[in-house]
Amino acid sequence: MLSVEYYAPDEKSLLERICKGNMSNYTHLFYFPYGNGWLEPNGVRTVNEYFQRKIDMLIRCLVSDWKLNVETVGENPFDQIASALRK
């Protein structure tokens, strides 16, 4: 299970710097909020609600802390993403 608590402080710092630095490689960042039914029990990803909420909270914290400009995806993701990519 993904948890930064299991990393030593220097490993956590290194992972954070790598992730934060890579954000500039993307032209668009899309956020799919928890609870919109995006995940299906297909055996690929966990549908454990606690885990989903924990990951969602981590994403929202990083978006805020790193001041990332993200497009929150709503009920019509394909049209919304296509529209954002055309801008």
Layout of helices and strands:
Blueprint: H1 9-22, E1 30-31, H2 49-65, E2 71-72, H3 77-86
Description of the structure:
The chain has 87 residues and is mainly alpha-helical. It has a domain at 27-86. It has helices at 9-22, 49-65, 77-86; strands at residues 30-31, 71-72. 0% of the residues are buried. The model has no long low-confidence stretch (mean pLDDT 86).
Helix content: 40-55%
Strand order of the largest sheet: 1-2
Category by helix and strand content: mainly alpha
- Report the order of strands and helices: HEHEH
How much is the average pLDDT? 86
How far apart are the termini? 37 Å
**How big a fraction of the residues is strand?**
under 5%
Number of helices: 3
What form results from the Cα inertia axes?
flat
Poorly predicted runs: none
* Strand segment count: 2
Largest pleated sheet: 2 strands, parallel
Q: Radius of gyration, Cα only, in angstroms?
A: 15 Å
Task: Quickly describe the structure.
With 87 residues, the chain is mainly alpha-helical. The chain has 3 helices and 2 strands. The chain has a domain of 60 residues.
List keywords for this structure.
single chain, 87 residues, mainly alpha, 3 helices
